Batch of 2 targets.
Target 1
Amino acid sequence: MPLSKFVFKPGIFTEGTAYDNEGGWFDSNLVRFNNGRPEKVGGWRKDSTNSFLGTCRALHSWVDLQGSKYLGLGTHLKYYINEGDTFNDVTPIRATTTNGIVFAATNGSSTITATDSDHGAVSGDFVTISGAVSLGGVIIATVLNQEYQIVTVPSVNTYTFVAKDTSGDEVTANSSDTGNGGSGVDGAYQINVGLDVYVQSTGWGAGQWNTGTWGSVTALSDTNQLRLWSHDHFGEDLVMAVRNGALYYHDTSAGITTRAVPLATQTGASFVPTICLGVSISETDRHVIVLGADPIDGNSRSGVLDPMLVSFSDQENLLQFEPLDTNTAGDLRLSEGSLIVGWAKARQETLIWTDTSLYSMSFIGPPFTFGLNLINSNSGLISPNGSITSPSGVYWMGFDNFYVYNGSVQKVPCSVLSYVFDDINAGQAYKIYAYTNNAHDEVGWFYPSGSSLENDRYVVFDFNDNVWTYGELSRTAWLDEGTVDYPRATSSNYLYEQEFGYNDDGVPMTNVYIESSDFDIGDGEQFAFLTKIIPDIRFLNNSESGKVNMVLKTRDYPGDTLTTNSTNSIGSTTQQAHIRGRARQAVLRIESDDTDTNSSNDDTGWRLGATRMEIRSDGKR
């Protein structure tokens, strides 16, 4: 019998039906296209067995003057600098108390109440206690003198934490713990933590737990909104900002464990913005660019955020923001939109998005320093991290389309557009994170789907083949290879190396598949009888024992439910697989062999070639 060759069109297409996309692919997970051929994506492993606190939504790498490589991570609880296997906590200190904290313990409870007048802390904050003496029982000095996360804030003068020993195990007070810790207790309070969820308005749910009263309205700020960091390096040093918060500075030469400090408090600082939406460095001309800032009001900054104001420092001087005739510091204000959402570095320009429009900001020299041009007024950005610069242009996700800028703005035709935008949890869209994987000519976006509160899906555009894929993978931040040797990504308090082998952190990757649209004989006028499959699969790794399943599904009409006709295990030496199916329409699915997690699916990579099937006409009914 004659064989029919099937080489399906690259890319996933979901904008129509499975039947009208004959000859193409309709569904996939953890599969990409390589020169038009579908293959399993690369795997991942933990970069370190050490974890960090909080959800990371910002990654930035840089190198110091001695060639040491660093990675900055901003989470909703802390800021870390990673070097090697260590996450160094460099979270800035907000306030300190000297000889001003006393404690109270309750017999049988591990909860300690601390009293510190006007402490300024919110639930979840971190404080490092020192100078305390024993309360008289098991709550000894070493229990008290360490870093604690604040659990509740009953009042502006009190807060609670759970006592622990130096191993992290809870310590329950006894009847002898009647002391107050002594008169020499100090406290170092880290900057207030942010939320791990996006809050769209004030009122109930806008704020830390156990704050405010029932029905009260809470103004949104950096402490009761999704915590987002931005960061960039100025030479070997790091400048970072909390969205709706302050600017901070880390002097790398002072040591990688040294905490960051407020930029505005540094010696020589002049008119540094006190509140902002983010920060970037204009590399060619060495200006610090503050996106969203409080304007100058007389002899100081106003302290009130103008979400459309761009403030920039003097050239080569990250501390001088006062506009003078003798420097290049200044401000520009955008007019289209209501707030600056995000920004990206492009070739010799900084792109700035508002919620409605795109601007280009470029260095033009004195006396104006920067020029500002409106590029497009109908292409807003969906999230602060929703844009990414790639070799083929700057891509971003809007509110209902994907766009690219490479001198002009263009919509990127998307074959999975409705699938993605109809499924996004719009209430958590500010968590969407754009990324590049330049080794595979890809740009992509991690996004929260359905009712998920966290990024759990991705969509990818291959700008070389102009095809789209999607799948399920939880990642909250991503940094492409470059300074680092593998792409890095974060999830569930860990940093991962991506594109490493084909496993899921040391165990076989499961639920990997790609499924075709329906195909038929003679436009479905006749039934098809399928008897044999001749596979053409290249195993990229584990070729000796690696296997995939080739699944044939059938149905008679487009509205019928697909029925699995046969599942065949295919290895590198498989010549053919015998099947037996009769239907008007059929679907081919290639999937990971999840039933065998010890050998056939372990670190197995594969790429599909041209599949041949033995098919003959078998009548009209």
Target 2
Amino acid sequence: MFPVAWRLDAGIGRSRALPFWFSCLGVLSVRFLTTGLGVLLLLTVGLGCGAFGPGQGMGADGLVDADPYGDGGAPTDDDDGDDALLLHCEAQPPSLTIHGDEGGSAQLLVSRIAADGALEPASNVQWFVLDDFGGTVDSSGVYTPPPTHGGRVEIEATVDGLQGICALEVYLEMEAIDSSAAAVQPEVLDLSPEVDDGCGPDLMYPLGGSVLARDLGEPVLQWTVPVELNVFVVTIENAFTSLKTLTMDESWAPSPSQWASLTHDAGGEELTFSVAGGLVDPATFDLVSGLCRDSSSTSSGVYQFGTAGTVYYWSPATSGLWSVGVGAAGAQAWLDNESTGHCVGCHTVNLSNSDRMAMVYGGGNGWAVAVDVATPEAPVLEPEIRPGNFTALNSDGTRLIRSYEGELYLDDLVTDTIIGTLPVTGHATHVDWAPDGSRVVYASCSYANDRYDWQVWGCEIRSVDVLPDDQFGPETVIVPADPDWNFYYPTVSPDGNWVAFNRHAGGDSERTAYANPEAQLMLVSLWGGEPILLSNASLPGQTNSWPRWGPTEGDFAWLTFSSKRPYGTTSHNVSQIWLSAINFNDAVQGVDASSSPMWLPSQDSGTGNHRPVWVPRY
């Protein structure tokens, strides 16, 4: 028997210098194995935890050395029994609650674990707060967390080349009083509301089951009240951070700093929203009745939109395109009838080339136009030259496909020439070019009304292979025609593996593809298969049209679309831009991959906004 124990733990890879093996000390005879999971211990009795670095118990074969003394395992007179093998680090207290600006701190205690198992306090400790959590450690080992967020923080202690990890859970509790409730007694924030579904406010936005993009701006919480209530306590919380706000309004939004605290990575990826209401005397502002709340709360995920950029959408207010940047204060007119002399719409970009955008001037059967996003006032392809309805650009912006009278025309934007037409079937329209350039998808339709491409029905979704030298290969039917459904508006995902599209039920009398009231969002593999209804994103009877992809971030790709679904209490029956997080892992399983959508912040809530197109960087 000899004193040794190392085991792979969560600390691997967190040290500033690699390799290090986070481990625990025990007494046993053991063989260590290196596998795809790291160094594994077959049997262990842990007494303390720390980390090994190069030369600290490592054999020449890359295995942890079970005989660090080189003498068969037993210490000899030449061995320094005081030499530490490991560090043990702990925080006292192990969890800390911070109330607003009061602050708080925890003592970090580090011990050296000698070969004989003895513990002795360590000195000359160097400290490193991991994962950009923030906070400071003073010379006596007192850690003060940042006042901006909660979470589980890990702090690396280093002594003479040994490492140990201190873990501390930090909870942040914030309170705020909105200016509308300045005269209300702040003690109302401390009251426990009675659960009463007939009294409690009904939260209308955010939507339960949604995923909110933390970097797209703060959501405006909106609610209705079933009885007379005029003061409200709004609570937003994650696993470690909470915010209670007192307001007399029936909507409220956190400040940018409050939102940053609530959506910090360390707090996890879920938020819970709730609203309690009460009644105060409007003359004295004394509380007349206690608080009540609904029995349910609203939970949503929180994730990163991920890439700076701009969403461009069509607005009927100016018959043109408006832009709203990520985190911008508001939307602004970009290209419209006033600046161009034409109605500007049906715009598109290729996600692999954010510098160039194609669009149509003059409405249906109008003129295909291409511009550089940085200089839209100087078109690359001028209007009144080539007719078109829907357009698509290749990944380098040198080729344009435009639909017109059931054909797909290919243009060379470098030489300003028409190359020819694509080999297509039926009335071809609603074209999109995959970001990797490998395929083109389109709607192949049996019928079209007066050749306007939003009046099409009997459509199926097809793809065409893109070959060298401006050639196109055989077609593939991705979603075959169905007499009970119309399939249209296909768009290829950023990774090139999926196609989002619209469908609606009905025959001849409901043939319009333009913001059809019963439109649903769908997803299918680019290579075909069973289509998946994105039911979480598709509120029945609310148009759910014009799907276009945003960026991919982590587990999600963002799908933008327009819908007339209510935006809280702000707008009803008005097309607005919405975003749903699409989880491709769910799509592979053949189940609904969508989340309930979030409203695109800063768009104009009073105009019927259509066809959102995301452009990175601009």
